[in-house]
Amino acid sequence: MFRFLKLLGKNLAQGPSTDPFPAKEAHTPERFRGRVVVNPEQCVGCRICHHMCAGGAIRIEDNEEKTGYNFTVWHNTCALCGMCRHYCPTKAITLSTDWHNAHTQEDKYDWAAHYSIPYLACAGCGAHIRMLPPQLAARLYAHSPVDMTDLLKLCPSCRQLAAARREEISNDTHEQE
Amino acid sequence: MNLFSDIVVRSPWLYRINAGSCNGCDVELATTACIPRYDVERLGCRYCGSPRHADIVLITGPLTLRVRDKVLRVWQEIPEPKVTVAVGICPISGGVFRGGHSIEGPIDRYIPVDVNVPGCPPRPQSIMEGVLLAKKIWLDRLNGIAPGHKEERHVSLP
Ligand code: SF4
Ligand code: SF4
Ligand code: SF4
After folding, report:
1. A91 to each of A45, A71, B3, how far by Cα in Å?
2. Which of A124, B35, B95, B140 is deepest in the core (most CB within 10 A)?
3. Which of A18, A76, A99 sits opposite B116 (nearest CB)?
């Protein structure tokens, strides 16, 4: 019967257990999966995220002039599952801790993030490419003596050609020896 | 009496409709009501058991074919001016179920939605933000500031 006294004492000592939100900002854990954000610098346009997306929230389409692609994430169908982040090879797409998502119906189709990401021209043939982000390239070429800075500006076919030429030169030098 | 009703802000009653949800969002809705940590009653709202007492209706789930007619009938029983909140990505866009053979949603194909709270499920604080937004719209409608668009809200039962 006097349990409430115990509760009262506990409440007086510890303060209420109610989260003061919305009067105060709510606590958000560091690893909270909130709205998806993309770093356009890092994205190579591989479309793995689009392929993996559980909610079909990601759309990647070439722009009209074909000079780049438009990357759209519609938050209103994103399940916040984090599969895109898990599979993105360059860690370009990630989930922020922003969960302030309530919006009125007028904003329904604007509740999206749009990115416009330009293609670069291959230094060899001019084809449209996205350059590997330096961090990823550094990992790929970590044990290779080849200077990667110029290689990164090439499309895959031109890189192949460059590799073949390198082989040729090294074979020649071996033969000369 | 006027002074009294001017000072006192009216309290909306909440009502929940499960339109074929996976229960994830319903658990979060129950959390806002039953767990003292969130406690939606602080905002002057409380859940009620009958659609006829409700002011703000929270809909979860992608509107499956099986529950469609029942959902529409219950929704129509809620008196105007009501505010409809879509909770979770399911009612908003179909979410992970979009394109499924038994999915009739998104819910705004049938019901005029006022507030969307995306998430799968949204966290309780996010739902509370949605309820606050809905409460504001509801008070505006009561005071005649925001259009209730009662006439446009005609829903035809199939
Ligand atoms: S978190 Fe999941 S649903 Fe959202 S964009 Fe990434 S893969 Fe798609
Ligand atoms: S965000 Fe990542 S997974 Fe998606 S296209 Fe860009 S690099 Fe590929
Ligand atoms: S939005 Fe996600 S958690 Fe909510 S009912 Fe749909 S699938 Fe379940």
Report:
1. 12, 15, 59
2. B95
3. A76
